[in-house]
Amino acid sequence: MSDRNRSFRLSRRQVMRGLLATSAFGLTAKFGTGCAQSPSSGGGAAADGAAAEELVVGFIYVGPKDDFGYNQAHAEGAAAMVADVPGIRLVEEASVPETTAVAETMRSMIEIDGAKVLFPTSFGYFDPHILALAEEFPDVQFFHAGGLYQEGVHPKNVGSYFGYIDEAQYVAGVVAAHMSPAGKLGFVAAKPIPQVLRNVNSFTLGARSVNPAATTQVIFTGEWAEPVKEAEATNSMADQGIEVITCHVDSPKVVMETAERRGVMTSGYHADQSPLAPEGYLTGAEWDWSSIYTELGQEFVAGKTLMAGDIPHVLRGGLADNFCKLSPYGPAVSDEAKAGGDAAVAAIESGELVIYQGPLKTNTGDEVLSTDQALKTDNIELEKMDYFVEGVIGSVS
Amino acid sequence: MASTTTWRRSLEAVALPMGAVLAALVIFGVFCALAGANPLAVYGSIYRAAFGSWSAWQNTLIRASPLMLTALCTALPARLGLVIIGNEGALVVGGLAAVSVGLGLGGSLPGSLVLLAMALGSLVAGGLWIMAAGALRHYRGVNETISSLLLNYIAIALLSHLVQGPMRDPAFVSKPSSFEIDASAWLGTLPTTRVHWGLIYGLVASVLAYILIQRTTFGFAARTAGGNVRAARIAGLPVGKLTLAVCFLAGSCAGLAGMVEVAAVQRRLNESIVSNYGYAGILVAFVARHNPLATVLVSVLLGGILAAGGILQRSHDLPDATVLVFQGIVFLCVLYSESLYGRFAFFQEREAQVEAAVASV
Q: For residue A132, what is the domain's CATH number?
């Protein structure tokens, strides 16, 4: 009898081992970043009855498809593409890290699913993974979000597209400054790379076009997804009396929710975060991939390709070209702020407003542009930005 | 007693893990059915995506090869009674050392010599990293599990600092990265495959580790110290030196994984090398019961599971976390099966039955 009991008991060592291993699994799962279910429009049903002419388009995301951020923006665009363009079948894979895993995913999509067009959306997929696969599969088109394509250097079947989302950040800055009596704005930023700096600067310039004394406090978290630091940064901004907080991190969810709880107004990024901050959400700079993806989808179905030169290798645009947009104004936004925001959108779309217009100084006092100089949105100089403009509180290094 | 292993015991060692995997498949099938997918179709897809063709096998092996190396970082010290989970950190410093050596030598030497130097650099760096945890344990009594875990964070922070600052290549815009190592020092793929040489490194390291632990006096001494450290001291074994040496070897395996990741995959140093290979290696080591040869099989199993992750999303509309659920179920079942050793009369040698039942607990 006692022997029997014994066989159901675990020794202390076994329990310890189990605990260690399960906690190791917990870590693994955390670093795997995935825990997302979202309605997918690809699917098993389509697989069986797929007509021969159906074009298979693959989308790859670095995180979950419902992250309220970068990946969600792309996933919504992909869903719009299949909904609006008949003859396209979508295959999707989420939470694919920037290692051999993405190379294998692209290969499976091509070899198993028969994909002819791939959209590996994460910035870091490009070099070396997309470039290597593009060499190997010259008749598959690879589109990458990020504008890294270089004529003559990269394979002909690679294209890149990116939006000047800082135009939307400028408008968000205008709205934020209207709503902030003290002119104290905050920006939670991931890394000091040119894109992020440009967003911070455009947001600040927008704010200062309304209130020349407005300032933007920047806090870098150091990583694209660092929820704890994002929350800390948001809280410390709230403690300092900052009135509107925006961000550039992979998923603005934590920043938005934390700010809302602290009663601070917010301005979103990547996708619409108004459900996360129903009271304080003013507006936000959103990607608008739907229109671009739909347009590209129609060209694919019409038989156009990058290789034949029917589709340009570099597609870029701002508010006027529907590459980005602003979230609908939240309930807190005053009529005056709405009017200011709308006017800024109109001025940018018509080309009459240039965001980087001299005289412009960095926040360390160096001159960037003299009075008669200006850098238009598509100027390549802006993509090498390594400074903060006057009005930003923070340092790039 | 160890040398009298006979077919029943061997059968037990094979049958229990296999049974556990089968049980895991059944549980996972129930999960899939609840999530609205046909379990049989899912099994078929997993098999096809992981082991169904040569191409699928290559996918599996590519994912398995870093795990073979990182698993040894936990498996070796475990034989000495230490629970080291600093695999990720050792991998990172290994990659860091490899890139530093590779960039330092540049194209000045033939590629194979540069590769050799990079490998040595990563072995030493990873080894010293884990040896630090071993030394803290032996000389200061610091818990090696905690210290090695914390060393991971230090390593990753160091990596971030270096690639965002001193080592950064300003012309490479997709993410903060070091300069690219010279093309002559890229680690290629095995002939006629797309699997890189890291697989061979992993296999060789596992076999060497097995021989070292099971077939040498050094390994015997380590196992003795792992069994009872006081007895080992009384027997005059140099426990301190053993600890340092085993930790060094363990760390160097993970460091080598970092070098492979840099030389064969990323070709420059950036945060993409922090992609969970270290933590997955801990799992592999525990599931393999710290047997260096079994880690190879478990790595391939995990590689297969990871390789199947995509098809679950693409063909069955299951969420991206499904593969993690599957992985978790498999590993929990295998770990549970460990508690069943010696509990089935069928696997007992007739005369050694009682003795074995006691010894296995």
A: 3.40.50.2300
